[in-house]
Amino acid sequence: MIFSNLAALQVVVPLIGAPLCTLFGRGILAWALSTAVTWFAFAVSISLLMQVLCCGTINYVMGGWLAPWGIEYRVDHLSALVLLLITGVASAVMPFAYQSVAREIPREKHRLFYTAYLLTFTGLLGMVITGDAFNAFVFMEISSLSAYVLIALGKNRRALYASFQYLVLGTIGATFFVIGVGLLYMITGTLNMVDLSERLSGQHDSRVFLAAVGFLVVGLSLKLALFPLHLWLPNSYAYAPSVVTVLLAATGTKVAVYLLLRFIFTVLQVNQQPDLLPVVDLLFPLALIGMFAGSIVAIYQTDVKRLLAYSSIAQMGYILLGISMASERGLIGAIVHVFNHGVMKAGLFVAVGAIAVHAGGTSIQNLAGLGRRMPFTMAAFTICALSLIGIPGTVGFVSKWYLVLAALEAGTTRGFIAAIAVVSASLLAIIYVWRVVEVAYFANPSDGEASVAEASWQTQFSLWIFSSSCVAFGLSTGLTAGVARLAAQTLLGIAP
Amino acid sequence: MSVLGNFNYVIAITLSMIGLYVLIERGNLIKKLVGLNVFQSSVFLLYISMGKIDGGTPPIHYEGIAPFSNPLPHVLILTAIVVGVATLSVGLALVIRIRDAYGTIEEDEIQALDAESGGTE
Q: How does pLDDT run along chain B (121 residues), one tens digit per residue?
C-alpha cells in the first residue's frame, strides 16, 4: 500500500507538514516536525530511486484520473536523482537550522519560518515529480512565493529589497513559462509532457510553436539565473538567512535546470529535430560568458556569501554548457554537476552560516585566523572549496571531467573552445577560493576576536555530511554518474 | 480575420506590453506591482480566449448542445488568478516592510540609501 503511493507521499507529506507547523509548532516542535518531514521525504526519495533503478519509470495516476486527462506524477532516473538532491540537502541542513534559525529569526516567527521552509520544499519536489506542464507552474509558484518570504526574513534591511527584486523577476519568469505552456496547449490540446511531445511532432514550423519555445526557454532561464538574467540572485543569496541560502543555492536553481532539461529534451526532443538545435546553440555563448563573468566578479567580492553567490552563476554556466552540447556525455556532465554543485554549495553555505554566527560576520576580514579558531569548520569549508575548483578526488572533478570529455568528443572548434573554457574558468575559481582560504589560514586575526569558538556539534554534523559527500561522490561515482548516464540516455531517447 | 478576428489576442499582447513597460519604467514599487499584475492579467486573457469556440455554449453537459467552449483553460486560469493574488499580496506586504525599513518606496532612493550605508552591512 505505502509503496505504491510513494510518489504521492513525496509531495503530500511536506504539504501537510507545513500547516501543521503553523498550528502546533510551539517552541522546538516546529523544528522537530520539519526535521521529521524532511527526513521522511529523504527516505521516500531513496526508495523511489531504488524502484526506478530496478523497475523503470514510475507513473503515478493522481486520484485515479488517467493521463493525459488527469495529472500524472512521473519519476524517471533524472527526477529521482534531483529528488534525492533536494530531500538530501533539505534534511541534512536541519541540524544546522536548529542553531542558525534560533540566532537569526525572532522566536515568535520560528513556526512561520518552518512553514515557509516546508512549502518551498514542497514546491521544489512538486516541480520535479509532476508530469503535467501546468502543474509544474503551480508548484513553481508555491516554491517561489514561500522563497520570497524566507528571503525577506533576513536580518539586514537589504533582504527586503532583494526579496522584492526576486519577486518581480521570478514572477516575470514564471509568467513567461505559463505563456509558453499556454501556447503549446493551444496547438496540441494537452498539458501532459509525454503527450505533448508526441503531439508536437510535425508542428515545428508553426509560428505559435516557435513563440512557445522562446517563452519557455527565457522564462526558465530567468528562474535558473542564466547569465544576463541573473540579477536577482546575488542579493537574494547574500541577505537571506543562512539556512534559506543553503536550500535555495543548492536546490532552487537546480530545479529550474531540471525543468529546462525536461522541456528541451523530453517535450521538444531537440536532439532529434535538427531545426530546433538553435535553441541549445543559443545557450552555448551565454554559458561561456556566465562562467567567466561570474568567476571574475566573484574574485572582486569582499563578502564571502556574495562571492559564493557569483560563483553559483559561474557554475550554472558549466551546467548549461553541458546542456548546449546536447550529447550523451554533455548531458551526463550537466546532470552530475547539478547534483555535485548542489552538495558542495550546500556545504560551503553551511560553513559560511557557522562563520556568521561565531565570527560575527561574513566579510573576508571576519575570516582572518579562523583556520586555527574554527579548525573543523574551516577544514570542511576547504574540502568543499577544493571541490568547487575541481581537484581530483572531489565531486567537482567528476563533473568537469565529463564536461571536458564531452567537449573534446564533439571534435569541433566549439567543443575545443568549451574544453579550454572549462579549464580556464576553473583557474579563476582557484583565485577566488584561494583568497578566502588564504585569509582563514595565513592572516593574523584582528584583535578582539580571540573568543571565537568552534561551531556547535549540530552544525558540524550538517557540515560534515556535505563535505564528506563531496569526497565520497568524488571517489565513487557509481551513484551519481551511473544514474546520470541512464537519465541522459532516457532524455535523448537512446535505449540504455 | 486579421486584427479584428484576433481582437482578444491583440488586447492580450497590448496589455502585457503595457504591464512590462510600467514594471520596467516606474521607480515606485507599488506602480511596479500594478504593472506586474497587468502583465499577469494579460496572460489570463490569453488562456480564456483560447478556450472559447465560435458559437460555443457554456460547458454544461446537456443533450442537444453540440459545440461548447473548452472549460479546461478557464479552470487553469482560476488557479493562475489565485497565484496572481498571492503574488500581489506578498509583494504589497514586502513594500510595507520596505517602507518601514527605508522610509521610502522609490527605487532610486532605496538604492541611494543602500549605496550610502556602503559595503555589505
A: 566 778 888 899 999 999 999 998 888 999 999 999 999 999 999 998 888 777 777 777 777 767 778 888 888 999 999 999 999 999 999 999 999 999 888 888 988 888 887 654 4
Q: Distance between terminal CA atoms of chain A?
A: 30
CA distance A87 to A125: 8
Cα-based angle A50, A51, A53 (whole degrees, multiple of 5): 65
**H/E run at residue A17:** helix A6-24
User: A151 and A208: one domain?
Assistant: yes
Inter-chain touch A185–B36, beta carbons under 8 Å = no
Chain B interface, mutation test: which of A153, A175, A352, most B Cβ atoms within 10 Å? A175
Q: Which residue of B has its CA nearest to A145?
A: B87
Asked if B98 lies within 8 A of A141 by C-beta distance, the reply is: no
Question: In terms of domains, do A196 and A329 share one?
Answer: no
Question: Does A216 share its domain with A145?
Answer: yes
A406, A337 contact by CB (below 8 A): no
CATH topology of domain B2-117: Helix Hairpins (1.10.287)
Expressed in percent and rounded to 5, the helix, strand and coil fractions of chain B are 75, 5, 25
Which chain A residues are within 8 Å of B87, Cβ to Cβ?
Answer: 141, 145, 167, 171
Whether residues A223 and A291 share a domain: the answer is no
Structurally, chain A folds into a number of domains equal to 2
What residue numbers bound the domain in which A142 lies?
Answer: 1-276
Q: For residue A496, what is the DSSP state? A: -
Residues A288 and A271 in one domain: no
> Do residues A319 and A425 share a domain?
yes
For residues A74 and A222, state if they share a domain.
Answer: yes
Long-range contacts of A32-36 (CB under 8 A, 24+ apart): A33/A114, A34/A94, A34/A97, A34/A114, A34/A117, A34/A118, A35/A91, A35/A94
Does B34 contact A at CB distance below 8 Å? no
Residue A167 to residue B101, Cβ atoms within 8 A:
no
Q: What is the pLDDT of residues A414-443, one digit of tens each?
A: 888 889 999 999 999 999 998 888 888 887
User: Rounded to 5, what percent of chain A is helix, strand, coil?
Assistant: 80, 5, 15
Each residue of A432-479: pLDDT tens digit? 998 888 888 887 776 555 566 777 888 888 899 999 998 888 888 888
